[in-house]
Amino acid sequence: MKGIRSACALIVLTFFSTLTQAATAVEMARQAYFLIERDPLDLDQRNEASYLIQRANVLDGDEPWVAVAQSRLTLVSGYRVGQRHDRRAYEESAVSTARQQAERAVRNGPNLAMAHVQLAMVLIIQGELRTAWDHLNTADSLDEQSFYPWYLRTVIAIHHKDEKFAAEGFKEIESRASQKYQKRLLLQERMRLAKATKNLEERDRLYREMIDLDPDYAYAWGNYGSFLLGQKRYREAVHNLERAVELKPYGLAVSQLAEARRKLNQAF
Fold first, then answer.
1. Angle at 109 between CA 104 and CA 113, to 5 degrees
2. Which SS3 state, helix, strand or coil, does residue 79 take?
3. Exposure string over 200-213, b if 16+ CB within 10 A, otherwise e
4. What is the per-residue pLDDT for 16?
């Protein structure tokens, strides 16, 4: 009898140990995913996310959140330059691998909204918009308060230059955007629509709003500087690009600052 009780106790301890490990894997994978989302271009945060994903994978490689985080990391690691949802902005092998990982996340967790969101994100990049839309509908039904289904639906609407649906999407996104990075994503999509509709005045306003949202975000200053450079507003471009380089001397801002200074000097 004593042996049976000991065996039962061991089974119970093993069961709760497994639950604890699984929960830890979920939390680490979630933390990794949102580290990347907050600033995809921050290499330190990306490295921290990679470490967390590796630990989570050791604890529970079948946890769907692990595959979701792996897919997001693969995408951002394969990013080169360009618009976030444009296939040309990524290494082709990264997009292919990210899709496989996202599909595994859906297989392992069909009731996990973010698994469908991550797969939809990859499908949008690959141009499979109808299938992406279906996964976003599933994600929305699983988590009606989530920011992501409406955000990515709006991405698709802008791709089709559907201003009416985009306007509805912006309202829904705004009501769900609680984090600074989510508000930044909303502004980026507003900018993309303004660019698609050739509204220069609105683009200028949105770039300034992005800086107001987070004055210490180097890329906000750099992107506005790049826009001003394209508009031949060289003095303003120099000011914004100098601020970007001061905050974070990333390569594109440095090269565009040199170009803006050269063109400003040529103008006099």
1. 105
2. strand
3. eeebbebbeebbee
4. 34
Report the distance separating Cα 134 and Cα 89, nearest Å.
Answer: 24
- In the numeric block, which tokens belong to residue 27? 């939390």
Residue 204, helix vs strand vs coil = helix
Q: What angle do CA 110, 111, 115 make, to 5 degrees?
A: 65
- How many CB atoms are closer than 10 A to CB 1? 5
**pLDDT per residue over 20-37, tens digit each?**
444 589 999 999 999 999
How distant is the alpha carbon of residue 205 from its chain centre?
23
For residues 102 and 67, the answer to whether their CB atoms sit within 8 Å is yes
pLDDT in tens, 104-116: 999 999 999 999 9
Cβ–Cβ under 8 Å, residues 135 and 123 = yes
